Amino acid sequence: MNKYEFLRWLDDPDIKEKILKIVAEPKKFPEPEEKFLTNDNELDNLRGENSRLENDLSETQQRVNDLERQIKSAQYKNSRLENDLASSQQRVKDLEQQIQNAQYRNSRLENSLSQSEQSSRALKNKLEEWQRTFNREQQHANNLQRELDAANDKISELNSLLQARFAHGWELFQKYQSVGSHARQLLQGVFPHENFTSFICGGAQVNSLETLWEVLRECVMNRRQQDAEILGEIFEYCLELVNASKAQASYSILPVNVGDRFDSDVHIEAPGSRAQGTVAAVYLPGYRNDYSGKIIRKSIVQVS
Hints:
Blueprint: H1 3-10, H2 13-24, H3 40-165, H4 167-176, H5 181-186, H6 196-203, H7 206-221, H8 225-245, E1 251-253, E2 267-269, E3 279-284, E4 287-289, E5 294-297, E6 299-303
Parallel strand pairs: 2-6
Antiparallel strand pairs: 1-4, 3-6, 4-5
C-alpha cells in the first residue's frame, strides 16, 4: 500500500471511529476468576501472565501512539497535498486564462497580420504600377532628351554653318554684345533672342532696316559714338542681307559727301545748320529702294 492509498484509508469514517475508540478507551481484560491459589507455581504463572498482558498493553499503547503520530503526520501531509493541489489547480486556472489571453492576442495578431499582408500586397501592386509608369515616363524622357540632343546638335551645326557662311555677320554679332542696353532695348523687336540665328534672321527683314536706322540716328544725335559706329556697320550688313533675300528689291545707301550742295529731297539738316548752303559734315547717310527709286530715309547732314 502506498501513502496515497493509506491516506484514503485513514479518511474512511469507520476506520477513524475504530482508531478513536482504541485511543480513547483502555483495553479491558477479563477479570480473573476467583479461585484459590493452591501453590506458588500457579501464583508465578499468574504473575507471568499478568506481566505479559501488561507488556502487551504497553506495546499496544505504543502502537496506538505510533498510529496517532502517523495519522497526524498523514493528516499534515494530506493537508499540505490538498494545499498543493489547490495551488496547482489555481495555477492551472491561471495558465488556462493566460492561454486564452494568448490565444485572443494571437487571433488579433493574425487578423492584424492578414490586414497588413493585404495592405502590403496593395502597396506592392501600387508600387509596381508606379514603377511601370515611371519606366514609361523615363523612356519618354529619354526619347525627348535624345530628340533635344539631336535638335541641339542640329542647332550647333546650323550655327557653325551660319558662322562659316556669315563670317562677317558673326563678327558683327560679337560687336553687338557691347552695344549699350538702351539701344539693345530699342532693337528688341529686330533681334528678339540673343543668339546668332536670331541676329541673322532678324536683320534680313525689310522692316528691320527702318528700325535699325532710327536707333542709329538716335545714337548719332545723342553722341553715343561707339554704339553709332557698331550699329552703322550692322545696318550696312543687314541691308546686304535684305538685298540677298529679295528678287525685286534692291536697297542702297545714299551717296553724300562733304561739299555737296544741300538738297532737301535727299538731305535733312542737323540742328544748328543753315537753311541753304553746302554739306559741312555727314552725320548719317540715308538709304533708298533702288527698284522703286523711293528714298526711305534722308541723310542727316550739317549745312554751312
